[in-house]
Design goal:
With about 80 residues, the protein is mainly alpha-helical. The chain is built from 1 helix and no strands. The protein is about 55% helix and about 0% strand.
Length: about 80
């Protein structure tokens, strides 16, 4: 009494259309083997970008330190 009942679905007869063609396989190789290579290139690009950013930050900090030391040495010579 309280059990849900599914409605009756009419089944349509399966007919095959003679004009329907089978799907055509794509020519050439699939792109699946290239997924690893693409991932490797992306990872290498990220690593190289991080290294470039680290070198740039280091260069800026060395330049600031050089300017500070130069100003300290020049002020010491004036006295």
């Amino acid at each position: 009494m309280f059990r849900p009942q599914l409605p009756d679905i009419p089944h349509l007869p399966m007919t095959i259309d003679p004009h329907c063609q089978a799907p055509v396989q794509p020519a050439g190789r699939p792109l699946t083997p290239y997924a690893g290579a693409v991932a490797a290139v992306v990872v290498v690009g990220i690593v190289l970008t991080a290294l470039l950013a680290a070198v740039a930050v280091t260069a800026v900090s060395v330049a600031v330190a050089a300017v500070v030391l130069r100003s300290l040495v020049s002020n010491a010579n004036r006295r």
